[in-house]
Recover the amino acids of this structure.
């Protein structure tokens, strides 16, 4: 993989949000290293290891009506920072919107070794 730059990070984020859309196990597995850490925010805990990340992700299911958006904010060394937003139709009859910041460390093969996110959630009636 070429050194991390905004284009490399953008392509990784496109694959990441593509995996949100497909919920395909192989696509999710391809994103992370074996020992990756997926942190859900400063107070929400984390999951360690690709197998555990994939299991939790796939069990979350497909998000109907999913819309995604992101903007690369910074890239330095093996780290990228992005602003992101997703919205989808929730089973409760609401439209859920998540808006946050992602911080990623990518290895030389373009897989994430550390994922950290902070986000706010809004629920609106459909």
């Amino acid at each position: 993989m070429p050194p991390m730059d905004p284009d490399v990070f953008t392509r990784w984020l496109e694959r990441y949000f593509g995996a949100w859309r497909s919920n395909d196990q192989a696509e999710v597995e391809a994103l992370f290293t074996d020992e990756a850490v997926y942190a859900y925010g400063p107070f929400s805990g984390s999951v360690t290891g690709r197998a555990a990340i994939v299991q939790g992700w796939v069990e979350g299911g497909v998000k109907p009506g999913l819309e995604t958006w992101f903007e690369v904010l910074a890239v330095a060394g093996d780290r990228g920072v992005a602003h992101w937003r997703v919205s989808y139709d929730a089973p409760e009859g609401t439209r859920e919107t998540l808006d946050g910041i992602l911080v990623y460390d990518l290895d030389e093969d373009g897989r994430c070794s550390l994922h950290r996110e902070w986000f706010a959630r809004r629920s609106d009636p459909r």
